[in-house]
Amino acid sequence: MVPLLLLSVAAVLCGARSLYAIAQWGRERLEDDPALLESLGLAPGRSPCVATLHRVFKNLDVKAFEAAVGGWLARCGVEPDEPLSLDGKTLRGIHGEEIAGVHLVSAYASRSGAVLAQMAAPGKGQELNAAKEVLGEVSLRERVVLADALLTQREVCERIVASGGDYLLAVKENQPTLHRDLEWAFSPASGESA
Fold first, then answer.
1. pTM score, two decimals?
2. CATH of domain 63-185
3. Looking at residues 92-102, what average pLDDT do you find?
């Protein structure tokens, strides 16, 4: 199983976006660089087919796999003080409305281009609980966390600071009192005595 997962990670890092693309990437390596597949632990002259990949991923403990890959990326290619962007995105569904897309909240190291952790959320606009879980999956010590206005919440800020990080969050009209207080605090008139 480990060689299949290593091949899959390598294929995705090279741009593969589906099981078919991962299998094709493996077949192409058989032709142009079979030693690479052997170094990943595959038997000489072998590469997995789509059906094999499907069975592996169907039975995979996704949370454990994502944690392992995210941890590996954090150790190998992400500076310990690299800022993290916390954001939600909806993956495209298939068959139109029959199977809707999944909404994920991710901690993304933008300089390295690595997702260090992600969690499914019930849907767009319902990201707060998933964001708090994602923040618990990554080291925030000496990092700055960036997020959009939806995640500008006291609980998120407290979790970041308690973990040794800082934050830079957007504030919009969706929080009118906070927005008004910030406008007042940073206006030229705020420094004048009344």
1. 0.65
2. 3.30.420
3. 61
